[in-house]
Amino acid sequence: MCFSANMSLGLGLIGFAASGITFMDKQETFWVRTARAYALFHFAMMELIQYFAYPVADQCGYGLNLFLSQLSTYHIALQAFAIMPALATYSSDPTALKKATIGGATLSTLFLICIALPRQWQLFGLQPNFIGDMVACLYMGIYHIGYQIPAAFGSFVTHGSFFALAFSGFVWKDNWRIASYHCFMALMTLMMPQWLLGVSTGEAAAIYCFYSIPITASFMPYFKHWFLPPQRRRLQPA
Questions:
Q1: Which of 20, 80, 83, 138 is 20 to 30 A from residue 37's alpha carbon, by CA?
Q2: Domain for residue 128, yes or no?
Q3: What stretch of H or E contains 13?
Q4: Half-sphere exposure of 48 (CA within 13 A, CB side)
Q5: Where are the beta strands (DSSP E) in the chain?
Q6: Which residues, at least 6 apart from 72, have a Cβ–Cβ distance to it below 8 Å?
Q7: Residue 174, domain member (yes or no)
Q8: Residue-by-residue pLDDT tens, the chain, 238 positions
Q9: 90 by DSSP, 3-state: which?
């Protein structure tokens, strides 16, 4: 396994292209294709951040590393708003997208508030090893860039983000196909590197962002027939 800045750049550019293709899917309503395209765009942006972070990895607390770390902090806070609406677009419930957008916006707003609060405020005195009472930094892990994210109530931000990525899709009616795929891929990229390779949680989170481009490629129009419920597949033009 060998990650590099050029790999992040390549996946980021692929993500931008995939976002554009997804937005041009005229078979879907404006808000459906916007939600799906934005999810791809959001994670493509993170790959660009990682591309610029490789040369300054481990230079914690100052300069370009600090700036990119702060961008990463806001990016992670906004993940719920990026992914939850996109996952809901495959549901047979016509209100799912609106509800997921409100839910994702609410979670992301709470995460942004946590980032603005004193980072020393942690639930029950816990000291999370990824998001919590720490200096913002992009560091070089065993295989990949890793994150240190300063935020109050780090356990809430960590597990809330994980819920959005891995489990929020199951909330919606007839949405188990896309939800199962994203849950499986989140577990494989977030948990397996920690269990099998001994990487830190912050490095595993960055590895997830790397693989998020092929994961969110599921939102592209070429694959939607695999994930739509049968009643919605029948309504799609041939």
A1: 138
A2: yes
A3: helix 5-23
A4: 13
A5: 131-132, 137-140, 145-150
A6: 46, 49, 53, 136, 138, 147, 149
A7: yes
A8: 468 889 999 999 999 999 999 999 999 999 999 999 999 999 999 999 999 999 999 999 889 999 999 999 999 999 999 999 999 999 999 999 999 999 999 999 999 999 999 999 998 877 888 899 999 999 999 999 999 999 999 999 999 999 998 999 999 999 999 999 999 999 999 888 889 888 999 999 999 988 899 899 999 999 988 988 776 655 555 4
A9: coil
List phi, psi (to 5°) of 14: -60, -40
Q: What is the number of structural domains in the chain?
A: 1
Print the domain residue range for 132: 24-233
Task: Identify whether 176 is part of a domain.
Answer: yes
Question: Order of strands across the sheet with 137-140?
Answer: 131-132, 145-150, 137-140
Task: With beta carbons less than 8 A apart as the criterion, state whether 168 and 87 touch.
Answer: yes
